[in-house]
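Escalated from tier 1: nicotinamide-adenine-dinucleotide holo job.
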Amino acid sequence: MQVAMIGAGYVGLVSGACFADFGHTVTCVDRDAERIARLCKGDMPIFEPGLESLVTANMRERRLRFTADLAGPVTDADAVFIAVGTPSRRGDGHADLSYVYGATREIAAALAGFTVVVTKSTVPVGTGDEVERIIREARPDADAAVVSNPEFLREGAAIQDFKHPDRIVIGTEDERARKVMAELYRPLYLNQAPLLYTTRRTAELIKYAANAFLATKISFINEIADLCEKVGGDVQQVARGIGLDNRIGGKFLHAGPGYGGSCFPKDTAALIKTAQDAEAPLRIVETVAAVNETRKRGMARKVASALGGSLRGKTIAVLGLTFKPNTDDMREAPSIPLITALQDMGAVVRAYDPVGMGQARGVLTGVEFCDSPYACAERAEALVIVTEWEQFRALDFDRLKGAMKLPVLVDLRNVYRPGEVSGFSYHSIGRPQGQ
Ligand SMILES: NC(=O)c1ccc[n+]([C@@H]2O[C@H](COP(=O)([O-])OP(=O)(O)OC[C@H]3O[C@@H](n4cnc5c(N)ncnc54)[C@H](O)[C@@H]3O)[C@@H](O)[C@H]2O)c1
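Tier 2 regenerated the structure:
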């Protein structure tokens, strides 16, 4: 199959490279010419484990190429995927669909022969109808079917997730489009990945419902963690105790500083708006989003209380800036409101992240970026683990203690166990404090 992937970001690039790896011929299109120039040289614009070798191998086999020109690849394509961003709209928090509709208009102009236009971007229910309307209006002669095929990959494990998905959701009632989609995903179907065919609107809703539910699990366990701290309990054990129940499941029950990232905050916000507009408000999701928002900044108070209440003039070393490990993505990272709050409380912040510092420099001000966890800890009064990168799981605490002014560790990801970090005053989430 000939595939045009519009948008070569985290989703478009990974999906495009994986489709090429399945044997399809894929052209990834991005209007960011610099990004395309880098990709043509085999230089990845994002950090994602395994991506560079997958991309370069498929470029070598001539199954994968990159261009800023949308028309040619779309004209030749059996399937055109829209994988552009859908950030929160300024002002009301609904999904900003200007990139999706902009891409649709460009696609419409270039369509030739039967083409399946697939929204892979996360888009509110009804967006597929509007994409179809735009195409029909611009090109009444075009033979196109619009399909919803939301993406569930996680950054940091994106290739594995794309190639071994829990399910593939395909929203269409068009028989010809169904055949094209089945052919595209054939290698996964052979691997027995469940293909779920639904209507387009249902497919659009599945993506938002999934993210809202996962966000709910996180906020739920975070509130249970707060309760554990007040009444004396261990949230890790509570999570395990409930997670072993198959009806609940153990995943997404890790208490922490609140969820962030490029999806959960904006997708919950957009779903809340959709539901309000439809006069079927989602009170649970509204509360989840509110709880999460206050939590991120609230983590600064936890750091302050570990230091006796005041942060004025104190130096705080922050380990981990990206919203989760194995990505360089800083979008909505909990580290941002946390660091801002620390600075507002008068602290001097030093920070280290294994791959995220390039992106972090663009969003954080007044932070001293360091070359290693140990350089970061120099003269610090507290060390705060914000992102659970693998390398923070085996820190040399003697060395850290030697570098720091005070041996205080605030572990916002419960990487360590209370009592395990000897010589430090240890503070974590939802467990006995100050040991
Ligand atoms: N990042 C994730 O983990 C993830 C997971 C599942 C779903 N999604 C969804 O996938 C979509 C894309 O997310 P992302 O993280 O890959 O975004 P991204 O910002 O990394 O990439 C989007 C790319 O689209 C390009 N673009 C925008 N308009 C264009 C146009 N008209 N023509 C060509 N290129 C254009 C941009 O230059 C950018 O490189 C979003 O809707 C997101 O919600 C993301």
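The pocket of nicotinamide-adenine-dinucleotide is lined by residues 6-12, 29-32, 35, 70, 83-86, 99, 102-103, 106, 121-122, 151, 153, 155, 262-263 (CB under 6 Å).
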